[in-house]
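Here's my example:
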Amino acid sequence: MIKAAPDEAEDGVMTTPVRKGDMQVTVTETGTLDSARNAILTCQVEGSTTIISIVPEGTFVKEGDIVCELDASALVDRETTQKISLTQAEALLSQAQENVEIQKTQNESDVAAAELKLSLALLDLRKFEEGEFLQQVNELSGAVTLARENLSRAEESQAFVKRMAQKGYRSQNDLEAERIAVTKAEIDLKVAEEKLKVLKDFTYVRTLEELQANAKEFEREIQRVKRKSVAALSQKQAELSKCELTFKVEKDKYERIVKQIEACTIRAPQDGQVVWANARDPRRSDAPVIEEGAVVRERQAIINLPDYDAMKVNARIHESRISLIKTGLPVRVRIDAYAGEVFAGVVDTVSSVPLSNSSFSRGDVKEYEASVRLTDAVEKVNKLRPGLSANIEIIVAELSDVLLAPVQAIVTIGRDQYAWVRSGDKYERRTVRIGRTNERQIEIKEGLADGEKVVMNPRTLFAKEVGQLENELAKKEAEQSAEGGPRRPGGPRGMGGERRGPGGPDGADGSSPIIPGRPGIPGERGSREPGAGESGRPQGGRPDASQLDAGRVRPQNEGSAGTRGPADFPVETKPAEAGATSSENRQAPALPLPAATK
């Protein structure tokens, strides 16, 4: 980048020629060094505990070395109690497992007994149908046949005795005896026939139905036994599941306590230098401190083990310039502890959301976190240490062979930019169109020529003319407002405008502009026009959100006729329209050389 020529004081007026040259558009911020591969050792004990011993800060340790010991006395007591609970749960689980096996055996026995009863019932039914009933029928049928034979013989005997009695060979008593014998034989026959009928018509049917009903009942009994067996087994299995779950819960509790006891001894996961995690918060008086005897909570960082071979810079980017920052952009890094030495880096990550605490002390202005990875050789990087302050200069764009002017030589009024150019022994006001800018220089696209000398402090030397232009603009906008006409974007002074890219009208990326000389931003020099007095923005104060609108910095007293510093002009403006007659666009007549000022 070609620096502007030294200012020239002619008749007490500071001027400098505009020249063609190269310019880098950069974003400068401050940040803090950190390791890109940082092992963070945290407290893994539930609740809180106390640090018993810790390795002194700065000690170099090897992988596996003990670096911190936490108080585990309460955990040891809990381990003993939990061990008893675990043993009881294990005994109940074993008993439940045995109960399940016993129930399975009992179920098998009950089902087998029911099936046996059914088999016996079916056998009784078959025995009756194919054995007992036929036997009884045969017996009663034989009795009927025998009774018939007896009746036939009695009748024959009666007939014989009757003939003999007629001949006088038998007595009347013999005849009466034969009659009684016949009657008895008839009764015996009738009884035998009735028994056979009862057997076939009643006894058989009743016994058959009874045996069949018994068989069906035993079939149903088998189903009941099976269902009862399933229910009983399910109950035992449910008890087993309960005991298994209880055992698992108690075991998990025990193992967790054991792990926490082990976690009370913290070992180094890698080689490195011990750094206590004493990241104090300036907004809190009760920020946690790491030391012996300190109480630490679960997941609280205790020790950092940085890898010095890979370092990075964590920086905060103002919201007005975050759209300019992309991953992969080259960065120049300067470390306060190594003055004069420049480190190379590249933008590694850019946060997509603002920091949650960035507006705590900065009003409504938001900031985004960006990480810059150092790309120099390990031998150069590993001498750095986390926590060192660093200044980063992100190279957003590089312009070649463009016309450049100092930023303080340009005055913005509304949406127009002006420069005062020396012409012989007088000065004339020019409307210019600007492009990209950085903290020191601004690209001139139209309105100036190479070699022309511009006034370095126009707001001081031409304060009256600047005030007239601003008053005319305010009056014109007030008239438009009273008539209901359109207003310039960004309030009565037209400072809002539309968001434009850093390339001006010809820009292709459409990103937010770089605002030159923004005061108060870390790593950026606030600009204040020499001699501007209260009209310039003071150094050291970051503009709040009310001063930022689409990449522009609004005046602090917007709408007033007060003057503004060179940091107030936007990145680009439209060229003066042809034929314009307003005092903003027409070229001012040459002014006589002002008197020399001390």
Summary: Helices lie at 73-167, 172-263, 378-381, 458-461, 463-482. The two ends are 32 Å apart (CA to CA). Residues 409 and 458 are 7 Å apart (CA to CA). The chain has a mean pLDDT of 79.
